[in-house]
Design goal:
The structure is a homotetramer.
Chain A (H helix, E strand, L loop, with lengths): L3 E5 L3 H12 L3 E5 L3 H11 L2 E2 L3 H5 L4 E4 L4 H9 L8 E4 L5 H12 L4 E4 L2 E2 L2 H6 L2 E6 L2 H4 L3 H5 L2 E7 L4 H29 L4 H8 L5 H12 L8 H17 L7 H16 L7 H15 L1
Parallel strand pairs in A: 1-2, 1-4, 2-3, 4-5, 5-6, 8-9
Antiparallel strand pairs in A: 7-8
Helix pairs in contact in A: 4-5, 9-12, 10-11, 12-13, 13-14
The structure holds NADPH dihydro-nicotinamide-adenine-dinucleotide phosphate (3 copies).
One NADPH dihydro-nicotinamide-adenine-dinucleotide phosphate (NDP) binds next to helix 1, helix 4 and helix 12 of chain C.
Organism (chains A, B, C, D): Aeropyrum camini SY1 = JCM 12091
InterPro entries (chains A, B, C, D): 6-PGluconate_DH-like_C_sf (IPR008927), 6PGD_dom2 (IPR013328), 6PGDH_NADP-bd (IPR006115), HIBADH-like_NADP-bd (IPR029154), HIBADH-related (IPR015815), HIBADH-related_NP60_sf (IPR051265), NAD(P)-bd_dom_sf (IPR036291)
Protein name (chains A, B, C, D): Dehydrogenase
């Protein structure tokens, strides 16, 4: 069983996972492309920082990657060298296609691959309350089962790579579409001078009560981002691409992705993704003042 | 106080309201553009059917309209004649603009106007469990308060016409966007062979539990429609227009409306609106066979 | 035959038409909602300015309206009083629906109606080189044929109201879609550091040579607007609505309209509509600076 | 200088190129994934068919690939083995990203790479009237200059890989957007019963005269496809991806791509891409009959 683990990527999610695993008794070594972030995390969380990826994975049984996107995944994977017995877990939200490509590549290096995207943010990870969606053959998954279960509830989606990635994109597509829809609905309220709190209280009495409770306040205020506009743009785009890759039509993912792309282009890529409505109003105002 | 009420429109919603009000002791007279429907309802619900709109509103204190859309509302309203003291309640989902136009027109005829769109379907109406959103000056609303409260919980949105219509569109925009997002997410699952029941069970653990409970089964099966693809197309388009009328940008309503428009064009306008996913698959298959 | 004509709306198009008609020997009286504009035009073009719409149409055989949109048309039309024998020509770009509504309303006032939208900008109008698309019964069109022919080539589209408006929207939909496509293509060039002049020289050798000649320079520079972002947003939206009104799906008009709506929201509503690319880049920069 | 050339891909474009080059005195060997197609072309055009890719490129100085898309390009490239001195020309429409990846990969095999997408269809290729857009360092391009010039006018876009691919996508984005706009405009005409020939005659007098001349007839009839709905879907999607890859927003490519994706899903992927309007009407009818 795994006792030593490398966390690849010391961003929001990687940090949450590193803290959790350290607190549960794992020996954690962190590697991050930009070294300072790994070192800061190491100091704060009492874990080790590795100077290189090779160093990070030397002597661990598993690596757990929380990097941004397909490119980051493929870039990390292509830096790995033969390492028999290692299990590489990809917990980033990527396209099924990229995940399958990573699996094929690692096969050639004797590295086992687990596709394990996560539902839940950095806080949920740190509290061990995330949902971990896993796709992998049994032999690859078995050694990391206890490890992944520390992060939250483990759901085995399938043996075939791509299935967990698809399920994660299906979930995020639903969430992001819903939140952009919420943003547009708030614009309607504004356009006609309707009280937003009244809307929220009505949502409370419908199937949207959970959503309103969790996101309404965050949609109209300016919270510290746990998930950014840039990542939301990417995820909606990946939903689009996942469908395109299999010759399926797209329904709204393109529009959702475009909303986030426009916000990114205006300089809001690093802001909290729930604030679509607030950012759009700011953009409008900003543009008008600037003009 | 109102004791006699004309229900204008004997469609799904009008029928639900007529049954409810009759069961609560109101004297209900129903008028419908296509006469047969009114007569059938009259027989079934033990209410009266009027041969003309004029006949229907003669001798009632209030008229409650559940017609399709802006055009239907304006067409009905323009057939009314001077009728001092009557309160005309519009419970259709219309644009704020059409509702305001109706109010202005009725003012000239001495008829009071209440904008009162409804959240909840025909079943909820009939059980008195809908949410009735009302916008009107106090003097117009007061006489119909008890009547409207029979249909469910009454929420006063504002004194100004347009506000309740806007809130209703904001709600439907959120719901329709979410359901189209759900449809697209189901396509992703299909494209990668992921079990839909697993997805549903994951939604149960998130803010989407209410949504999954109410709509998941309906999204994949073939239920009797309570709300149709055509009406969904209209509502998403009205959200779009409500924003356009005030010079606001649109985020996803155009894409949502377009999905429903494409389904309508393929002949699915009368089907249940939750079945986006199922209808799209059928369309794909149909087109392919036909080709 | 018409010798005296009222021009309704002293905007860009109304001004071009007034100058042209005055130079061709018509007695022109101008009315504009905002009076100053009418008076300025009267001074510059040597025509008369009327203090009210009633005054403008008293004593003329025809009125020629170049107002912004459906609302402006219906507002102007609803201010008219009985005026037997007058021909009212609507040269604004409106929906078929609004044009048909105007025709019906004017019928009740004994006023004949000609739907006559125009292809070509203010300059073309002033030089008599526009294309005037006309829909009206022969009896209404006959008296204004010479007048309209002064503005350019007259094309009779049909006897039924709505057909010329539809043809105009079909044309503008094609033009606006093409120009937004051009804007997006320029973004692609920018994103990969490709010379825009090279692209233009390639377009010269294709079916786009006419387009490149007329619009390329204007797309990348900052010209005085002859047609604005706001009007473009409106026209693409009207194409969308014209299709929706007949239950047809939309293909790209929603996306085109949304691009212009977003630019309007950012404060660019009054800028030249060809500059999509330039404005988007400015918006990006603006947002980023402001942030 | 090149005298012997391998044409990779015996589809529409590859066939056109093979015929042209054979007729100009080159020794052409054709390879195609599905062997029969290569053999048929060999018989018809009097060229050689190779049994394997390795066989095809053994003994030629240059290979010219006309395969479908990014995946096909990367699949072909990854089957190549060390082959010093060979110049591999990619004439497919691919994303800049895939082209750059191909270049990097071939570098490791001692193969020179030229990115050379083409404007113009199979007929133009066969007559030597295409426009060949080239991006490559001078040393790679020089040996194939005479060869590529046989296909039409050669335009050097830049030294950097990606630039010609971007220019090609910019062109196709403009063309496809315009043609979908044309399709939507034809729907508007239909919806209001306007004569399509009249519309065409008006386009003749505008910047769209070239477009109308080349595509109008094809848009309303049922021609043998020279370029398919599937490839159009791909190209619009690649325009979208090219922008996304550099963090740029998308304006209409998503909508254009979606129109073609929906048509593909309905079974029209192999039809002529200009017939958007005709296919949509057929889909509508088909769906309705089937329902
Ligand atoms: N935040 C959330 O709530 C959730 C996020 N996710 C997913 O988890 C993943 C990580 O998200 P999050 O932690 O929020 O993102 P952050 O932006 O906080 O962190 C991104 C990490 O990826 C690294 N990275 C980016 N590009 C490369 C590259 N080319 N090579 C190596 N490393 C690279 C970054 O390194 P550097 O510091 O050098 O830039 C950084 O460590 C994403 O796929 C996201 O979609 C999933 C569920 C929830
Ligand atoms: N510009 C162009 O190149 C072309 C324009 N068109 C169409 O012609 C029409 C006019 O365009 P253009 O001249 O450029 O627009 P402008 O914005 O320059 O002028 C608009 C005119 O409409 C008037 N107006 C707006 N709202 C109302 C109202 N509610 N009641 C009365 N008058 C009103 C304005 O009056 P006020 O001054 O008081 O605001 C002004 O006179 C539009 O429909 C446009 O789409 C068609 C072809 C080409
Ligand atoms: N047609 C046109 O007018 C124009 C086309 N283009 C571009 O040129 C390219 C070719 O288009 P066109 O000839 O029309 O397309 P076709 O569909 O006629 O031919 C496609 C070719 O690609 C081959 N192919 C597909 N996938 C693979 C793969 N994975 N490995 C190896 N070969 C593969 C096919 O082989 P098989 O027979 O085995 O399926 C076939 O030879 C495309 O990129 C297109 O966008 C550019 C300008 C104009």
């Amino acid at each position: 069983m795994v006792e030593r683990v490398a966390v690849v990527g010391a961003g929001r999610m990687g940090s949450g996972a590193a803290r959790r695993l350290a607190s549960r008794g794992y020996r954690v070594v962190v590697w991050n492309r930009t070294r300072e972030k790994a070192e800061r995390l190491a100091r704060e969380a009492g874990v080790e920082a590795a100077g290189s990826l090779a160093e990070a994975i030397a002597g661990v049984e598993a690596a757990l990657a929380f990097v941004s996107d397909d490119d980051a995944l493929l870039s990390v994977v292509s830096q790995l060298r033969r390492s028999d017995g290692l299990v590489f877990v990809n917990s980033a939200t990527t396209t099924p296609r990229a995940s399958i490509a990573a699996a094929r590549y690692l096969e050639g290096l004797g590295i086992q691959y687990v596709e394990a995207p996560v539902i839940g943010g950095p806080g949920a990870l740190e509290r061990g309350e995330a949902i971990v969606l896993a796709a992998a053959p049994r032999s690859a998954l078995a050694p990391v089962l206890p490890l992944l279960s520390e992060l939250g509830e483990l759901v085995k989606v399938g043996d075939s790579y791509g299935t967990a990635a698809a399920l994660k994109l299906a979930f995020n597509n639903l969430l992001l579409t819903t939140l952009v829809g919420l943003g547009e609905s708030l614009l309607i309220l504004d356009a006609y001078g309707v009280d937003k709190a009244l809307f929220s209280s009505i949502l409370e009495r419908t199937v949207f009560s959970g959503l309103a409770g969790k996101y309404f306040e965050r949609a109209v205020s300016k919270p510290k981002p746990t998930f950014t506009v840039s990542l939301a743009e990417k995820d909606a785009r990946y939903a689009f691409q996942a469908l395109a890759d299999r010759g399926y039509p797209r329904l709204v993912s393109h529009a959702v992705s475009n909303v986030y792309a426009t916000l990114s282009q205006m300089g809001f890529g690093g802001e909290d993704y729930v604030g679509v409505y607030r950012l759009l109003k700011k953009a409008g105002a900003g543009g008008r003042e600037e003009h």
